[in-house]
């Protein structure tokens, strides 16, 4: 069973991965400036995919930061909706979750 320290370390590691990926996405988006119409169309399609990845990465980063804040204030591991304890197995799968299994439905 993971300790609170282990979970915090796991969340921080994932946040660092996301930050690196988001920086890579931003850099890639900045390089797309083709003047050829065909290449520009392909770049725009790629940009849409990258922007989607960036949006989901930003959302996950917000969830992780919220989980880290709950660790700091002592409320991590308890459902923000009903207050029940979140099962360790659920936290193993989704460490940033703010909800117990029932409230997540």
From TrEMBL:
One of its GO terms (biological process) is methylation. Residues 74-104 form the Zinc finger DksA/TraR C4-type domain. InterPro entries: DksA-like_N, DnaK_N, Znf_DskA_TraR. A zinc finger (dksA C4-type) spans 79-103. GO terms for molecular function: methyltransferase activity. Pfam families: DksA-like_N (PF21173), zf-dskA_traR (PF01258). It comes from the Bacteria. Residues 1-35 form a coiled coil. This is Dimethylmenaquinone methyltransferase. It comes from Rhodovulum viride.
């Amino acid at each position: 069973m993971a300790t609170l320290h282990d979970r915090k370390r796991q969340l921080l590691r994932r946040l660092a991965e996301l930050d690196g990926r988001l920086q890579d996405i931003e850099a890639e988006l900045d390089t797309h400036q083709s003047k050829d119409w065909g290449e520009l169309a392909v770049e725009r399609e790629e940009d849409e995919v990258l922007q989607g990845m960036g949006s989901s990465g930003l959302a996950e980063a917000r969830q992780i930061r919220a989980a880290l804040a709950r660790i700091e204030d002592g409320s991590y591991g308890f459902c923000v909706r009903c207050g029940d304890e979140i099962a360790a197995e659920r936290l193993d799968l989704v460490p940033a979750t703010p909800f117990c299994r029932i409230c997540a439905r």
